[in-house]
Amino acid sequence: MLKESSDELNPTSVEANAVVAPSRSVRSFKDYLALAIATCGVGYLPLAPGTWGSLVGIGVYAVVRGIGLKLMFDLAAARNLTLLHVYSVTLMLELLAAVIISFIGIWAASRTEKLAGRKDPSKVVIDEVAGQFIALLPVPFLINEAWWAAILAFVFFRFFDIVKPYPARKFESLEAGLGIMADDLVAGVYAAILVGMAVLISWFI
Fold this sequence. Notes:
Strand order of the largest sheet: 1-2
Number of strands: 2
Order of helices and strands: EEHHHHHHH
Shape: globular
Largest sheet: 2 strands, antiparallel
Distance between the termini: 51 Å
């Protein structure tokens, strides 16, 4: 039985027990909520849903960073905080957001997998959203450095999401939503490490 990939460029792999018992035909509010979260509005697009999911991840990250900076700059003006305070707390908020997205994604992906009746259905892209979000964490706060770092984060994440270096491919075999999310989270960490290295190198050249 075939395990369906979240991106057409990702080769199909053979996996035992790939068929998941479908859920009941009458869907509840939680079912529709899980589908909305898992697909992020782009999972049903016909071409490369994983890539669309990554783009959604960039958008979510931009919103989180924008809100974080706005709140912190307002607080800095009132409390006379430094830029170090602003950037440090904003980064912590981004890390918290990544954790929340990941846990919500595990729940939504698990429920959607049951509804679809198959292992890791391609319409689930919340894993790409979470992975891309993590890949963007090292992006600098300065606009003149952020744009190229964000592009690198996108390219590196898509590469690692497709190649699935160790232990990403092994994590795919984990049960339900945990398996769906885990390999993309690993890909995001790999991408984040390379982006961070590229940013550090750029500061010395």
